[in-house]
Design a protein that fits this description.
Elements: E1 4-6, H1 11-21, E2 24-26, E3 43-46, E4 55-58, E5 61-65, H2 70-75, H3 81-88, H4 93-98, H5 101-107, H6 114-120, E6 124-127, E7 132-134, H7 135-140, E8 147-153, E9 158-164, E10 174-181, E11 184-190, E12 197-198, H8 200-207, H9 214-224, H10 235-254
Parallel strand pairs: 1-3, 2-3
Antiparallel strand pairs: 4-5, 5-8, 6-7, 6-8, 9-10, 10-11, 11-12
Helix pairs in contact: 9-10
């Protein structure tokens, strides 16, 4: 239960307080304050009013303030469509109105809709205390630096996001984002492991031109993933749905319609 809430005057002070008081950041609070969360902090550092929440074009990249809510992200025309669509997958408008982009990245949930899209778009984070690093590295290296901006470089190719869920309000069975360009393929998938993963072997075989049909991609994904049974779905079902949806998304990126 939260016993102390610190209200810093600057982002630098927020970092200082977090380190000194062994506190955690609270941005939108939808994860920190969620009853099912495993965080249970005693001390929080409030970020409200400190983080940027604007979207601006700087040379050839888009900079998005980490304090932007997922609803505002969805409503901002300058934000690439796959990222806006990923934010929209969170069913509840009330949650989207509170949840921030920075909080979604740092929460590092396997069922994030936004993280696969950011990875597929080669996004970076600009942090207050850890420099600029790719989102994927921030997540895989367990970084906890304070995210100030999310940076989207210009990328080639088409990016497709999708998800499978038993109902609109249910937690997803699968979240995914795929981007295919000349010489580069990214397939980022959530809900199969503790965190969002990339299917690198499949990516390489698509980029090299070895996998060109939906069936070939389907079979390659079946080889690459082996999810266990979950509470609601069997492992074979999860494998099938993953292979089907990734193969379809790859074909859509390639402009092949079935
Ligand atoms: C009903 C409900 C449904 C949800 N459904 C989903 C879902 O389907 N998919 C999903 O991904 N999430 C879901 N969430 C979780 C949550 O909404 C998101 O993960 C949200 O984007 C977190 O953002 P926040 O600003 O609320 O983060 P907070 O709760 O404030 O913080 C989350 C974590 O990030 C850290 N943090 C916050 N901001 C920063 C920052 N700028 N830099 C570094 N660290 C930071 C905090 O210390 C904390 O560890 C759901 C939550 C609820 C209540």
């Amino acid at each position: 239960m939260i016993q102390h809430a610190y209200k810093p005057a600057s982002l630098e002070e927020a970092v200082e307080l977090r380190n000194k008081e062994k506190a955690i950041y609270l941005s939108g609070g939808t994860q920190v304050n969620w009853a099912g969360s495993n965080l249970h902090p005693e001390k929080v550092v409030l970020l409200e009013g400190l983080l940027p929440d604007t979207v601006k074009k700087v040379n050839d990249r888009l900079e998005i303030g980490a304090g932007i809510t997922l609803q505002a992200l969805m409503d901002t025309r300058d934000v690439p469509e796959p990222l806006r669509r990923a934010a929209e997958f969170i069913f509840s408008r009330s949650v989207r109105n509170m949840a921030t982009l920075g909080g979604n990245i740092a929460a590092n949930r396997t069922d994030s809709y936004v993280i696969p899209a950011l990875i597929a778009l080669n996004a970076w984070v600009k942090t207050v205390d850890g420099g600029e690093i790719p989102v994927e590295e921030y997540l895989t290296r367990g970084k906890d630096a304070l995210i100030e901006w999310v940076i989207l470089p210009e990328v080639a190719g088409r990016c497709v996001v999708d998800r499978a869920a038993l109902s609109a309000a249910a937690y997803p069975t699968l979240t995914l984002a795929v981007r295919v360009a000349d010489g580069e393929t990214v397939i980022a998938v959530g809900c199969l492991a503790d965190h969002v993963i990339r299917l690198k072997a499949v990516e390489e075989n698509i980029t090299s031109g070895e996998l060109t049909s939906e069936e070939a991609v389907f079979n390659a994904v079946c080889e690459a993933v082996d999810p266990p049974d979950s509470l609601k779905e069997s492992g074979p079902y999860r494998k099938y749905i993953t292979a089907t949806m990734v193969a379809r998304a790859v074909m859509e990126c390639m402009g092949v319609t079935s």
